[in-house]
Amino acid sequence: MRQIPRLFVAEELTGGRRLALPPAATHQLATVLRLEPGGELRLFDDRTGEWAARITAVGRRAVEVEVGAWLRPREAPPDLWLCAAPLRPERFAWLAEKATELGVARIVPVLTARTQFHRQNLERLRARMVEAAEQCGRTALPELAAPVPLAELLAGWPERRALLFADEEGGAPLRSVLAPPPAALLVGPEGGFAAAERALLLAHPAVRRVSLGPRLLRAETAAVAGVALWQATSGDGS
Ligand code: SAH
After folding, report:
1. Digit-coded pLDDT (tens) for 135-145
2. In CATH, 80-233 is 3.40.1280.10
């Protein structure tokens, strides 16, 4: 039985509402999935939760749907932030997709001394996160923060939130650092953290230095491994 397509819509959903889906969704539904009037959908709006919907008309430029029954509430994902130095755009987009699938609540691009790719196309990143949320069944999108320099991030760090500093140079095994939500994982860029950044981090009261094992992981591997480990010990992946 083919899975009923799930789509994110930006406007707030209510039962009985009729709406025209945007061009990208129209293409996906009409051209790719060849859905006809009467075809079933699931819609979510990152606010009210997930709704059943039915296609009422398929035009060349827009697909019209009618919202039906409310199915389930917007999820409350475990309160984990992924703070990651931006990477080569395709790798960073891949990381944003994986972090979405793994249930992070917020992604914070952190500008560090050795960050090579300061400019990120946030629209493209967000589109990748929306697609991931549609595919993996999330009803809440992760927030995507604006890029922030590391020192500024630390200066305004919320004191109740533990910051797990994934340090390629060592630290306690993540499984032994219990950091219940609200928590955050920090991963550096391809070139790692500079000595001054490490000193700044280790002096910060919210920071816990964690190791992700004896091997040197690519940044995106470290982020995925770190989020998955945290979910297994402190989140909803257990
Ligand atoms: N500076 C390294 C590469 C850094 S890897 C080099 O010599 O090339 C990129 C980031 O992944 C690191 O900053 C760290 O946040 C994370 N990372 C990689 N391996 C890790 C490990 N074994 N433990 C903890 N974090 C790790």
Report:
1. 999 999 999 99
2. yes
